[in-house]
Amino acid sequence: MTNLLSQNKMFGGVQATYEHPSEVCKCDMKVATFKPEGAENAPVLIWLSGLTCDTTNFQYKAGAQRIAAELGIVLVMPDTSPRGDHVPDTEDQYDFGKGAGFYLDATEEPWAKNYNMETYIRDELTAWIGEHLPVDMDRMGIFGHSMGGHGALTLHLKNPKLFKSCSAFSPIVAPSQVSWGRKAFEGYLGRNADTWRPYDATDLVIQAQTPAKILIDQGTDDQFLKEHLRTDIFATACEKTGQPANIRMQDGYDHSYFFIASFIEDHLRHHAAAL
């Protein structure tokens, strides 16, 4: 059963937050949506947020609704991890546990029961969207920020017929090679690095390319760029394999939602043209 938690009129459309049960995450999941006025058989974009975030960050800070209303695009903003008192967590670590699901399916205990965010996004959330929103499921794209940029890239590269367009802000593009990714992968998936490869965008783009032109924006003053994000690794892989990509290094911008708000219109128009 889906419960409506909040609803507000915005740019003629409706910004809402819902809660629905998840079989794969074994908990109730929240999801925010924006439906433009008169939306019917509309294209739909799923936004995946980053570490420590939930359904609120993008809807309050990105400033996406005005352009989405103009373009007639439905926005869907799921949570970043399972939630609930019964869901395991590491309360003293912002980059693992609740708020840090990394959009993968965990295999290690005690995480495997609840932390199945890849299956949730790919299967359950898309089914929920098709049932509850006025969209054309053949025109669905995916985008995200940081950890969510990693999720958007991997979900697109593995499911290009489902998520037909893709973009990212400040994505973790080579998680197997950086400390954020290695910590998450070892904790959720175990120490065998072969099990990490299906969740590494650089590995995935080397294995197979998609026809979609991927848009990435990365700020040059991002405090996480050199240690955790490493945009250059993915850019090199795209060049070598011929993956269409527009990777833009934006001078002076950091990792914040001020950066996202500055370029969100470009991303929405990128997806609108592709869908």
Describe this structure as you would to a colleague:
The longest helix is centred in the C-terminal third of the chain and has 18 residues, at 257-274. The protein has one domain (3-274): Rossmann fold, CATH 3.40.50.1820. Helix content is 34%, strand content 24%. The chain has a nine-stranded mixed sheet with strand order 1-2-3-5-4-6-7-8-9, with helices on both faces. Helix 6 (201-207) packs parallel to helix 8. It is built from nine helices and nine strands.
Q: Note the beta-strand portion.
A: 15-25%
CATH fold description:
Rossmann fold
Instruction: Point out poorly predicted stretches.
Output: none
Spatial strand arrangement across the major sheet? 1-2-3-5-4-6-7-8-9
Structural class: alpha/beta
The SSE string, one letter per element, is: EEEEHHEHEHEHHEHHEH
In short:
This protein has 275 residues and is an alpha/beta fold. 34% of the residues lie in helices and 24% in strands. The protein has a single domain (3-274), classed as 3-Layer(aba) Sandwich (Rossmann fold).
Give the SSE layout.
Layout: E1 3-10, E2 13-22, E3 27-35, E4 42-48, H1 56-61, H2 65-71, E5 74-78, H3 117-132, E6 135-145, H4 147-158, E7 165-169, H5 179-189, H6 201-207, E8 214-219, H7 225-229, H8 231-241, E9 245-250, H9 257-274
Parallel strand pairs: 4-5, 4-6, 6-7, 7-8, 8-9
Antiparallel strand pairs: 1-2, 2-3, 3-5
Helix pairs in contact: 6-8
